[in-house]
Amino acid sequence: MIANGVVLPMLYLPPVEYFIALNKHKPNILIEREEHFPKQTYRNRTNICSPDGVLALTVPVMKGSKNHTKIKDVKISYDFKWQRLHWMSLQSCYRRSAYFEYYEDDFAGFYENKETFLFDYNEQQLQLLLKLTKIKTNISYTETYEAEYPELIDLRTSINPKKESDIEQKPYFQVFEEQNGFLKNLSIVDLLFNQGPQAINYL
User: Fold this and answer.
1) Using the 8-state DSSP alphabet, how is residue 185 labeled?
2) For position 163, what pLDDT does the model report?
3) In the chain, which residue ranges form alpha helices assigned H by DSSP?
4) How far is CA 191 from CA 54, 64, 139, 156, 157, in A?
């Protein structure tokens, strides 16, 4: 067991607070893959900045992926063209940002290739995001489900769209700031597309 580290869920384009925790507790990162899939969390949704404020994007999962399916076994549904919707939303919301074109090709494949499992999809994105944010860390994965980790900071339930994040977040430039003001704790891609290589200094 890794002590003095953090245990995190596997999320879809995770919010900024997730990467602040990752950067703070590296290299001792444990990612949960044995939990039962909780609905209405960042595990299959992300928040980005649109002209009308926060826009939530959700990855649909196959029916039957209720609370008794392990997160690693949850399958993505392709019954409707959510990939096209997500990619068009990212393009329309961030086309004017300073670094979107710089990173565009890195993300495009995620909206063309059809990955079977949500966990694998999110994991591939996480590896890319760690590379782009230049966070060097070793990630371990849970082998069994444990309700508590006494020696670790457990953030599996606290990073949640239904909970107001209590992180102190300095404003950075956002594309629609004039309309919305600063929107905190959006997806890491909001920080990346607006700040580019400076994202690691921000984190």
Assistant:
1) S
2) 86
3) 16-25, 82-94, 100-108, 118-133, 177-180, 188-195, 199-202
4) 14, 34, 22, 22, 23
Alpha carbon distance 156, 42 (integer Å): 11
pLDDT of 177 > 50? The answer is yes
Angle, CA 108 vertex, CA 98 and CA 155 arms, to 5° = 80
d(CA 54, CA 188): 14
Q: Is 77 helix (H, G, I), strand (E, B) or coil?
A: coil
Report the 10 Å Cβ neighbour count for 64. 10
Name the DSSP letter for residue 76.
B
Tens-place pLDDT, residues 78-91: 999 999 999 999 99
Phi, psi of 139, rounded to the nearest 5 degrees = -110, 130
Own/partner contacts of 125-133, CB < 8 Å, gap of 24 or more, are 125/12, 125/13, 126/10, 126/11, 126/14, 129/13, 129/14, 129/19, 129/188, 129/189, 129/192, 130/22, 132/103, 132/106, 132/192, 132/199, 133/19, 133/23, 133/188, 133/192, 133/199, 133/200, 133/203
Mean pLDDT score of the chain: 93
Whole-number pLDDT of residue 1: 47
β-partners of residue 36 are 70
